[in-house]
Amino acid sequence: MKQSSGTRGLIMNEPLLWEKGKKGRCGISIPKSDVKSSSMDKEFLGDPPDFPDLSEVDVVRHYTRMSQWNFGVDTGMYPLGSCTMKYNPKINEKQAALPGFAGAHPMLPPELSQGTLKLMYDLEKYLCEITGMNAATLQPAAGAHGELTAMLLFHACLKKRGQKRNKILIPDTAHGTNPASASLCGFKSIPAASNEQGVLSPETVATLMDEDTAGIMVTNPNTLGLFEENIKKIAEIVHNKGGLVYCDGANLNAVMGIVKMGSIGIDAIHLNLHKTFSTPHGGGGPGAGPVCVTKELEPFLPVPRAVKKGDAYELKYDYPDTIGRIHAFYGNFGILIRAYSYILSMGKNLKTASQYAVLSANYIKQQLKPVLHLPYDRPCMHECVFTDKFQEPYKITTLDMVKRLMDYGFHPPTIYFPLVVSGAIMIEPTDTESKENIDEFIQAFKNIVKEACETPELLKNAPSITKVRRLDEAAAARKPCLCG
Amino acid sequence: MRYLPHTSEDIAEMLKVAGAADLDDLFSSIPDDCRFKGELNLPEMTEWELNSHMADLASQTAVMPEYKVFIGAGSYNHYIPATIPYLINRSEISTAYTPYQPEISQGTLQTIFEYQTLTARLLGMETANASMYDGASALAEALLMAIRIEKGKKKTVAVSSLVHPMYRKAVETYFTPTDFKIVELPYLADGTTDISGLEKIGDLAAVAVQSPNFFGCIENIKSASDKAHNLNALCVTCFTEPLAFGLIKNPGSQGADIVCGEGQSMGIPQSFGGPGLGMFASLNKYVRSMPGRLIGQTTDLDGKRGFVLTLATREQHIRREKATSNICSNQGLCATMSAMYMASIGQTGIRQLAQINHDKTEYLKSELEKAGMQIPFKRAVFNEFVVKFPQGFETKYKELIKNKIVPGIPLESYYPDLKDHYLLCATETISKSDMDELVKEVKS
């Protein structure tokens, strides 16, 4: 094997912010005041917050050191299954930083914000073209926020039909946030087991679906990386019983230009712009989770909506059946700009991106199959799921193997998810990793599997070259220290 | 495509290993009648075309300094130090994911631990979470949390009519499918919330008040929290302008149980309303009912200090059906920006800057009053305030816009009884001459 990427550099120690600094320093230029000072009413005057006083150099060095303790997509391969960590094009950052976007006040009169409104209007159209749906809202601020929005739409639609349904079907291969999003809308989650092929059977859905059930929340492709091949039949069963079909579209990266969700019976789908449409996720967010819907659900979409009137764009509030607002303003507009910029850069090549994502996942699946147990040996979509079953005799777990991957210079894949697979290792290479990188990753994993039987202590002690070693998560939860 | 590194040779080799004849063959598990056979109808641009297209769109928005924008109302124009965009664009910060693997995410983890701490100190609370989507969803989640703390036995919340109107709309949306009720509290002639009717509401789980409120007026949080506690309810406070706490008493010291709001003011661009930062804090005893993610301190195998995501048992990926929160993505990068801002400004700086903001507002307010405009609410304000302009001001408003001055927002659509009333804002970015120009134009 050629030399692996993982190595040591000079990693600096850095105290907590308030363990440094000195009273009287300031890292910001305070403007001179050109008006006379006016004292705050004594009744309300308080003490300033107990912030440390730091110089600009202190702050810059602090966060530069923090950054050096992190692994990002720009650092190396990040095959985090179901999270789609593809490369984030830099041109998108340039667009989002344009002063006309970054400095735009959300309550400007429409005649003073035509560009931002046009961007929202067109982005909705593009997302509808990609999903084959009729209308969209850009308001949800994240994927789970999109799930919640879709459930609110279901609730409103059923209410309009005069129905009160209190259950929702959730397959065991759905994303983890689905049940919580449903329960926020008062729906009780009914688990639906997938079959031995790793997908839902129409028979299972037919048995569970009744007149008290609002519908189904299906992740497609699902979290085993498999396309729900019975989706049309399942949608028919749900619709025949008066239910609605929601698709968790977090895995859309596998099927852009290949499947149009509107034509396979989906009533609502959320998209993760921070995944499929390549916007950076900043250590946990922000994201954006637009929801695309059918004509039937359109009247319930959140307000305001960007509409076109003649040659001008405006925000329209007048939708009597709307669920209302789910964000103070219009959603994470800065993220929408990046996704819009990505879509325009790619055009119909979005399909190529999906093809390469799926090609890479199948390539990894075939190459690692001899050394890692593959519970569902079928053609996968953009991710593949292995387990640690072959390593059981050596008492090596999934956790041990992926911790060792860090020493080789890779971010570990998603582990112990989906819950339906014991000791799961979910690998998603995405469309932006080259064959060389993927080969290096495969080789690293093969080496680790070899180490698992020959020198297991290497894995048990891994990672060995990171700034800190395995952290005591149990102690953190038992005696929470959340504030310094 | 430059983001897609695959050469035809790579593709051929990979297809062979994958056992597929061609790229199309990879999708054989998708039934034929589920496949889309056409081509996506999307525009496609080179980088040059994209640059000019985006520049064109961005140029159609009225922004400072070309326009003098006197709007606050939940989104504030404050100076962002050059260090913040510079540091935030370090890709190890911006391109990292949720820190599931703490050994290689200590930068994100320590940064957010520090953010939690600075937020708690700013708000005078014991614990803050790692952020929520925005101020509106944070308030909705805070009220749901209050009901959760009461184990669902009390189902009514009282929300001040001076909470940002859009936040109240979001709360309504979150509450619609539940059997929880919202009672709106009227406001008094001084521009603060009327809490006198609270006793009459049975079943009260929480009282929600915003301070500074939507009119910019500073509320008496102490009396609201005392009254809420007397009625065995929680006091939830929210804010849209956290910079105020550099000058005024923080909500924690006034007895608030849960504090939430929008943190955009501190180092985050306005970006047409998002992404911003939902800040969220509470007392320690409620931490297990708190929505969203938390970072905790711990040690590694060698006893070194380190940080991890913690208390995940409340979260969806473990308990699924029993989860108390569906928050997965949050606003981590925006939380980082505000932490950088709080670190940069420090205790000394925030006091000075808050004072300057207060001074500017008082100047504009008094100059407008001198020019014959009415200031209907005599209460102490921070940053923004309500003005009653002469009847028929709409025409003048349009004229001013033509002259590149945006004199606040009309309040009538949110408060029908406030015809001709406008909400104005002046931060440190507004100069005396900008304000003098506005006053002159309004007078003429």
List keywords for this structure.
heterodimer; A: 484 residues; alpha/beta; 3-stranded antiparallel β-sheet; 15 helices; 12 strands; B: 444 residues; 12 helices; 14% strand
Structure description:
The complex is a heterodimer of chains A (484) and B (444). With 484 residues, chain A is α/β, with parallel strands linked by helices. Helix content of chain A is 33%, strand content 11%. In chain A, strands 1-7-6-5-4-2-3 form a 7-stranded mixed β-sheet, sandwiched between helices. In chain A, strands 10-12-11 form a 3-stranded antiparallel β-sheet, with helices on one face. In chain A, strand 8 (305-309) and strand 9 (312-316) form a beta hairpin. In chain A, helix 4 (114-131) packs across helix 10 and helix 5 (143-160) crosses helix 6 (178-184). Chain B is of the alpha/beta class and 444 residues long. Helix content of chain B is 34%, strand content 14%. Chain B is built from 12 helices and 14 strands. Chain B has helices at residues 8-18, 47-58, 83-88, 91-94, 106-123, 135-149, 165-175, 221-230, 316-319, 332-370, 393-402, 432-443; strands at residues 68-69, 127-128, 156-160, 181-185, 204-210, 234-239, 258-262, 278-282, 294-299, 305-310, 384-388, 405-406, 409-410, 421-425. Chain B has a 7-stranded mixed β-sheet with strand order 2-8-7-6-5-3-4, sandwiched between helices. A 3-stranded antiparallel β-sheet of chain B has the order 11-14-13, with helices on one face. In chain B, helix 7 (165-175) links the parallel strand 3 (156-160) and strand 4 (181-185). The mean pLDDT of chain B is 96. Classes of the chains: A alpha/beta (484), B alpha/beta (444). The interface between A and B is large, with 205 and 197 residues.
